[in-house]
Amino acid sequence: xxxxxxPTEMTATEGAIVQINCTYQTSGFNGLFWYQQHAGEAPTFLxxxxxxxxxxKGRFSSFLSRSKGYSYLLLKELQMKDSASYLCAxxxxxxxxxxxxxxKLIIKP
Amino acid sequence: xxxxxxxxxxxxxxxTNKKSLKCEQHLGHNxxxxxxxxxxxxxxxxxxYNFKEQxxxxxxxxxxxxxxxxxxxxxxxxxxLQPEDSALYLCASSQSDSGxxxxxxxxxxxLTVT
Lengths: 109, 114
Prior knowledge:
The complex is a heterodimer of chains A (109) and B (114).
Chain A: E1 3-5, E2 9-13, E3 18-25, E4 32-37, E5 44-49, E6 53-57, E7 60-65, E8 70-75, E9 84-91, E10 97-99, E11 103-108
Parallel strand pairs in A: 2-11
Antiparallel strand pairs in A: 1-3, 3-8, 4-5, 4-9, 6-7, 7-8, 9-10, 9-11
Chain B: E1 4-7, E2 10-13, E3 18-25, E4 31-37, E5 44-50, E6 53-57, E7 64-70, E8 73-79, E9 87-94, E10 104-105, E11 109-113
Parallel strand pairs in B: 2-11
Antiparallel strand pairs in B: 1-3, 3-8, 4-5, 4-9, 5-6, 7-8, 9-10, 9-11
C-alpha cells in the first residue's frame, strides 16, 4: 500500500530552527508538496519538490531525496505564527496526491 | 470573492436529512476536488473533477453524491449520513489534476451528524 509518515507533533522555541521529516512509500513519484494548515483554516501551499535537493523560500526550505523516499521541511527563525500543522503529500504514478496525517508544530516563547 | 469559497461553514444535520455543500472557485482552474478531513488522519480524497468530468471516485459511499455543473462550481449532496461522517469537508481546485500544480483549498464545512 501507499504510505506517508510524519511525526505527529513537534515542539520548538521561538527564534530557533526546526526540521519536519516526511518519508514515503508510493507507487511511483511525480512530486512532493508541503502545505501549512492553521487550526480551523484551509491548508495553504508552501513548497513543491520534484528533483533531489534543497528548495529555499525565505525562512522555509524543503529538501528531497527520491532514492531514500525522504523529504524534510526546514523552518528558520521560528515565529509564534508558525504554530500550525504541516502536511506532506506525494503525487504517485497516477498523479493522485497521497497525504500524510500532518505534523502539529507547537512554538513556545 | 477571491480564491475558493465554501458554504455553509458549519452544518449540523440528522441522519435522515438531505443537505448540500457548495464550493466555488474564482481562480480559473480546471480541476476541483472534495476531501474529508478527520482529526489526526490524512486528508481523504473523495472526488476529482477535471473540466467538469469526474476522474476519480475513491470508493465513497453512495450517500455522498457530487455534482459539477461547470468548472467553477462543485456540490456535494448528502443524504442519510452516519455519525462517523462527521468531519471537515474541504474543497480544492488546481489548474489541472496532474502535473506540478498546487491545490488551493477552501475554508471547509464543519459537518456534524447527529
